[in-house]
């Protein structure tokens, strides 16, 4: 589907699949592109070889500095469709007109790792959305976790330095399981709540398509009357919120470091377009101080039981990028990119981000004209008195480049607020200049306790395991001890369990946070569960019945379940083509496995995949023909999600939709 942004990008697209003469960047057709210009066939190369110099100079500079954080990212195009007119809250036109579809570009990312790092590491995920609206670009720049590690932007460099590889040996890559991060955690307890989230299943999402997104900060919505409401933004995936388990995530990192981007790319390529609903938590201005936490504190959530999420529209990602560098790598986001009707709060982390995001692009994208790169350019006209600079693509006509001017009738002109001009919210502020933190920001443990109380038993066990792994990787005993002491302020039992496993002392004093309510929205146990686009590995052999296998794959396809036939070698099975082997895939890359046939005795890769699927609580189907071979594995027949398959897959699919069978006894 072509929208305004697609048309704009197509104007800048070069289709290299079409015949065309090879030229220099100035358009000169070249007769030769294999050899440098030399003084004789065996002689030295000549300085006058302008074609070589142009080609090599461009190659030498074709990599730009990677992002300091969020370097490992992948993006896609789509559109946003509004369900209901929100003019009573905001004058933003794209949130007022239900007849229009707004083009969007979304970039998903990990935070800590470099561009080449695996995608299934334990980490927060970036979820940045650019809306190309008729009033300019609006960027909703968030994460898959609704809170952040710090409360004030001045601490951001310290946070990032703590979780990046330690500078003396550049170890470890893309992970927080080391001393400097856990030292930061203990010395900066405001990070406790966010760390609970990253150590939970949310830190290892199954896919970009099945993770939530959050704007993190408190923003404002402003209507035409100038009335303000506080707001938090949520993206809710229509496939539900699903995660990996830790052992599975580690295996995938070795089997396919591009697991998440490949999943997104293939889903869009097949037409299985991922969808999210945009939800708003809206709070009247007069309710700003009604809670026992500060609504401007970015380390706090607004419990959905107190401030419900209103789902007001849907985003669909329906087109892959044509070129990852030109689009995904060169796209830039900033929370400072707003449109009339959306404004900022005094959240001190947000206030710092309004500066830092734009400042970063001056280095990454080569100067102040990054907004002219096609993926960043708005679809509406833009004009101002900014001029020149590196990579200026526009040719400005006329004498004037200042405001006010009489020579050019004061063009470009400002726009009155009544006609759509942006004006900051009229907020009265009377205060002393201080470097301080509000006392309302000082409770760092109550919401961490609420998050823990909201988890199901499996989720809580995963959290305990994650803390034990990460803190256990620290080499300094006092760092381990301080981290455990901080956990003791959240939950005594959690601190005791982690202390025992990492070799720290159980804190002598019980400093556990006050008991807090649970919030059902924080657990993923009861999330949406669908068969749509789940994936199954079907194990076959050369002796498998082609008709039976064809019946199985037709039933999978009819239920929108993706599948791959896997055997010990690539081959034809009737009219079916077996393209994957036990050397190239593993059960960790699928939502379930169906062992339709297997050679006696079980090949080690087959046994390993079956046992991995079992300990990852996935659905395992097997036929009567395979039944006796299951006893060669750790799988216990009759356990939840272990299904004897007959002529059809009805029982298997009923189990597969659950995705994980936590009641299974291993």
TrEMBL record:
Pfam families assigned: Catalase, Catalase-rel, Catalase_C
Domain Catalase core as annotated: residue spans: 23-411
PROSITE patterns: CATALASE_1, CATALASE_2, CATALASE_3
Residue numbers spanned by region Disordered: 1-23
Co-factor(s): heme
Domain of life where this protein originates: Bacteria
An example molecular function term from Gene Ontology annotations: heme binding
Sites where the protein binds heme: 67, 107, 156, 353, 357, 364
Active site: 70, 143
SMART domains registered for this protein in UniProt: Catalase
UniProt keyword Heme, yes or no: yes
GO biological process: hydrogen peroxide catabolic process; response to oxidative stress
Coiled coil: none
Example of a GO cellular component annotation carried by this entry: cytosol
Record keywords, A-Z: Heme, Hydrogen peroxide, Iron, Metal-binding, Oxidoreductase, Peroxidase
E.C. number: 1.11.1.6
Ranges annotated as spanning the membrane: none
Secretion signal, residue range per the UniProt entry: none
Function according to Swiss-Prot or TrEMBL: Decomposes hydrogen peroxide into water and oxygen; serves to protect cells from the toxic effects of hydrogen peroxide.
Family: Belongs to the catalase family. HPII subfamily.
UniProt protein name: Catalase
